[in-house]
Write a structure and sequence with these properties.
Helix content of chain A: 25-40%
Number of helices of chain A: 9
Shape of chain A: globular
Distance between the termini of chain A: 39 Å
Strand content of chain A: 15-25%
Radius of gyration of chain A: 19 Å
Largest interface: A-B, 30 and 30 residues
Structural class of chain A: alpha/beta
Strand order of the largest sheet of chain A: 3-2-1-4-5-6-11
Largest sheet of chain A: 7 strands, parallel
Oligomer: homodimer
């Protein structure tokens, strides 16, 4: 039984990761500014991770063997360029340094598909796809990976970096793609969409939580894509939601501008996740969309 | 006249940078844990740059137009792998974020020749030499450059990154190469040296301070090597010191092990420094060594 510290447990993927970890035999502790909602059998420490001394005190007290560090400020619509990325990187460095000082054995951080130079065809592969972030957010994530990998190698700490791609699931921030389309259709309003032909890799957030928990508890090292490997177009997702709600007439493809630099295709290679971590997602896209629609219908 | 904030002003190169800046017409403010020694006509604010709130308060008070950020923990013999690099990176992010929030116009940070994959022949060039740091220190410096460059681009802040190579000059940390050889010879003891054939680019620290001040006050953007472009072997330096002290008999080449990964050659291309910043170093190697020997003789 290992003592594992989870940060960011109140976030979209953090909640599901906490649920997954608490279903194991391990001792799970979470820490951060916001109390995770739900009734997990877990200890929670309230602190601001940008406060270096508070993080030092936390680590001295709990002495985690494994840290799964999810905390990062990702306010929808702002996080691509926000100065908050500098704080989130600073907080991540606090967590790593203080945990290492308190005897950490394994550190698992969370990256993003936006670290890659996305290939026009095929999938982003952890070993062969070049790294080339072009936002402040992804540059800061990539910087954390570089520093943590180097530091952990020197300190003989096991290190992995779970790269999340796109996520969907109940209780997502309302401004994001699936909630936005769903809520427009639920109100009987036209749903503006950018380019329906964009190909993405959408993972159910509950699978992402399970996958991250499994990665943290494995001994796999280095970057690992936590995704489905299954390409899907934004049009397929929008049509899936519209089909469940019986309102395909309300979809307005092309009515929203594309974000500058949006690539046509972002899909993960999931060979490492499947073969080395031994994880397969459990939810089909249809099942995910059904649960999302049910969630927003009940609001 | 610009208001310029200098961090790290109490350090080896910081003291000379402060002297250089105070000789201009600009308003110079320094900040950090240690009061810079000497009697400059400058304001100093005492604070720990890893303290996010203290850095916020400082920037709100002084609202610098230019920040020249030198502060970084470089304790001799430890800094290559030290966890202190994570704190120094966190402090650097604090400085950038808080200064940007307070209306910063230009940010100049300090990198290192250890960011480069050193070519076996020729010089490290800012535009064409690949980046591939292989220590925690250089990885953290490189991470700061990546994040700061991306953030400043988004925030329309002018950004430059002065890459220092090797330095020499009076008042260096006693464990480093020139002071160590000098002090052995002054005591009439054998001076153990690793590999005399290693080729390096040694700049006088007073020239480095002038060069950094000029870079900060210029509008040149991106990475700029702050070095001499003049290859010199460790043997030439040791022989120079021994010649001044009349004790060539005490030099022991090969008596110290080489640090793992020490490359045979690290020399800068100084085209950007010369042509764009318009700076040339004023000290010959002989002049530098004479001043170093005089400094240690007077201790």
């Amino acid at each position: 039984v290992a003592r594992i510290l989870l940060t960011g447990a109140s976030g979209f993927v953090g909640r599901e990761t906490l649920t997954a970890l608490c279903a194991t035999e391990h001792e799970v502790i979470s820490a951060g500014r916001k109390l995770p909602t739900g009734a997990w059998p877990t200890r929670w420490h309230g602190l601001d991770l940008t406060d270096r001394h508070a993080v030092d005190a936390l680590m001295r007290e709990i002495r985690p063997e494994i840290v799964l560090h999810l905390a990062w400020d990702v306010e929808h619509g702002k996080f691509w360029t926000s100065p908050a990325n500098l704080d989130s990187l600073g907080a991540s460095l606090n967590v790593l340094r203080a945990a290492a000082h308190a005897g950490l054995r394994r550190f698992v951080g969370i990256g993003t598909c936006f670290e890659y130079v996305w290939p026009a065809e095929g999938a982003c592969d952890e070993r062969s796809t070049p790294i080339g972030p072009n936002t402040v957010y992804a540059t800061a994530k990539d910087a954390m990976r570089r520093v943590a990998e180097s530091f952990c190698r020197e300190a003989a700490i096991s290190f992995a970096w779970g790269r999340l791609f796109h996520l969907a699931g109940p209780a997502e921030q309302p401004g994001r793609f699936v909630p936005a389309v769903t809520n427009h259709l639920l109100r009987g309003e036209p749903a503006p969409i950018s380019n329906g032909a964009l190909v993405r890799d959408f993972m159910d957030v509950r699978d992402a939580g399970q996958g991250l928990a499994r990665l943290a508890l494995s001994e796999v090292e280095g970057p690992v894509n936590v995704a489905t490997g299954r390409p899907v177009t934004l049009a397929e997702i929008a049509n899936g939601i519209a089909g469940l709600l019986g309102r395909p007439d309300l979809l307005r493809f092309g009515a929203l501008p594309e974000r500058a630099g949006e690539p046509p295709r972002i899909v993960a290679s999931v060979e490492r996740l499947r073969r080395e971590v031994g994880f397969e997602p459990a939810h089909s896209l249809d099942a995910t969309l059904r649960d999302c629609v049910a969630y927003w219908r009940a609001r």
